[in-house]
Amino acid sequence: MPAPAPAPAPVAEKPAPKPAAKQAPKPAAKAKVKPAPAAPPRVAKPAEDAAAQVQAVEIGGRSDQYFQTKTTIFNALIDTIDLSQLAQLDTESAAEEIRDIVNEIISIKNVQMSIAEQESLLQDICNDVLGYGPLEPLLARDDISDIMVNGASHVFIEVGGKIQLTNVRFRDNAQLMNICQRIVSQVGRRVDEASPICDARLPDGSRVNVIAPPLAIDGAALTIRKFKKDKLTIQDLVNFSSISPEGAKVLEIVGHCRINTLISGGTGSGKTTLLNCMTGFIELDERIITCEDAAELQLQQPHVVRLETRPPNLEGQGEVTMRDLVKNCLRMRPERIIVGEVRGPEAFDLLQAMNTGHDGSMGTLHANSPREALQRIESMITMGGYNLPSKTIREMIVGSIDVVIQAARLRDGSRRITHVTEVLGTEGDTIITQDLFIYDMEGEDENGAIVGRHKSTGIARPAFWDRARYYGKEAELAGALDAASE
Questions:
Q1: What contacts 185, CB < 8 A, 6 or more positions away?
Q2: Using one digit for the tens of pLDDT, what is the confidence trace for 86-124?
Q3: Exposure pattern of 230-258 as b/e (b: 16+ CB <10 Å)?
Q4: Phi/psi class of residue 139: alpha, beta or left (left: φ > 0; alpha: ψ in -120 to 50)?
Q5: What three-state secondary structure class fits 405?
Q6: Which in 251, 350, 404, 442 has the greatest CB count within 10 A?
Q7: With contact defined as beta carbons under 8 Å apart, do 291 and 339 qualify?
Q8: 267 pLDDT band (50/70/90 cuts)?
Q9: pLDDT tens-digit profile of 26-47?
């Protein structure tokens, strides 16, 4: 770790003078924001002690002395700056103004810092005032897939499927809550004691979940599922060994030939990434409507309508559920309906849409196997209050869903498509399925990485063969299945 920065020189008790750079006329009422008081010391809990023993990954190499210096200068900045004038500037001009004032405060207080430390300090303070504070360097890294903030002092990241503790931290829990408010307010939502749980998204589509005190005991818990800047394609999944080239060809035919598809998997298994890849095979002239809790799909087609649910307001009114969106889709002349995640009674409406001319619709849900995914669909419909016999629900599932694609996150952190499974029909009260592709795990190498291969189950003519022939893809389908069986 880099050596700690020298301690700042003693600071006089009187307030810092106003910088000379601020000569613009000020409004009658000057808006000032006083820094929140530091949280009172508390006894460390066992979980905190354990976290402290984990070696933190260095992000920028910040020392305790650096954070103390930054707090001193930040407080002086807030006491000096005219927020009403700053709000009238664009981001670049506001950042330049902040840098000028901070440089003058450093000079006035005679703080001894190296050029590199001063540049880091300027960038951090600009991030605090204009951006997402300590999260900015993490959001800028494209190799991080998840950011998990457990209170002001513990920030974890996931890189390459592995979770690591970082040395990133917030000034206090008040700053963390301010950052959370800034994120959710951009999409018209709020998080506070009255509404302590909130789903939101960043401008780039990254998914955000916040759970605030009093539900989160040790400070707000913020979780960000980051999206890569460059949208992944099915070829990228082949390069990552998530699917074989032959399996990728079958998925391309499934997407192109308007085959109703359900993507199943556990948390962090890559369901949304795979759904994004599958939508890449949709024709450019099709009208697509997406329904999501927090809009994160990145469709590239020109004719896309994106819909997003809405939580209730303070009076408990105005909620728009996923089921409301899916039902409304049917009145919007869709050719394909894409549901970000099926988790409740909207499963019934999605099956109805798939079964009434909206071929090629897609959705994801949480399940650990294709058969469990179909059972979960049945459970969701039953819990939605539909008084239908189980046999009727299963016949509806069989008549609506053609293919289930199972994604999994393995114990080494890698993500694989483990099953491509067809839904064939019913036999008595049982839904009959058949696997086209499976992932066969063979062991692990000397580094602990899972070793395995995707292989065909030997099915030469899948149930959607006629559909592939209708679109002129039967030769490509036969070639992919033959190559996978060798």
A1: none
A2: 767 777 777 887 888 888 887 777 777 777 777 777 777
A3: ebbebeebbeebbbbebbbbbbbbbbbbb
A4: alpha
A5: strand
A6: 350
A7: yes
A8: confident
A9: 333 333 333 444 444 444 444 4
**Which DSSP letter does residue 360 get?**
T
Instruction: Report yes or no on whether pTM surpasses 0.90.
Output: no
SS3 242: coil
Same domain, 340 and 443: yes
User: Based on C-alpha coordinates, what's the Rg of the chain?
Assistant: 27
Asked if 324 contacts 370 with a C-beta cutoff of 8 angstroms, the reply is no
Strand order in the sheet with 144-150: 162-165, 155-159, 144-150, 221-225, 207-211, 197-201
DSSP 331-358: TS--SEEEES---STHHHHHHHHHTTT-
Q: How many helices (H) and strands (E) does the chain have?
A: 16, 15
Structure tokens at 429: 């009260």
CATH for 170:
3.30.450.370
Residue 440 has pLDDT above 70, yes or no: yes
Does 322 share its domain with 370?
yes
> Distance between terminal CA atoms of the chain?
53
Point out which residues pair with 24 in neighbouring strands: none
The answer as to whether 43 is a domain residue is no
Both structure tokens of 15: 């307030």
Query: Could you give the CA distance from residue 6 to residue 69 in angstroms, rounded to a whole number?
Result: 10
Contact 454, 481 (CB under 8 A): no
- Domain membership of residue 20 (yes or no) is no
Number of neighbouring beta carbons within 10 Å of residue 49: 9
Q: Which domain holds residue 157?
A: 131-229
Domain final position from 94, 129, 164:
129
Q: Please give the share of the chain, as a percent, with pLDDT higher than 90.
A: 35
What residues form DSSP beta bridges with 432?
Answer: 425
Sheet of strand 304-308, all strands in order from the earlier edge strand to the far edge: 304-308, 288-292, 336-339, 362-366, 261-265, 403-409, 415-427, 430-444, 450-456
Please answer whether residues 248 and 233 qualify as being in contact, where contact means their C-beta atoms are separated by less than 8 angstroms: no
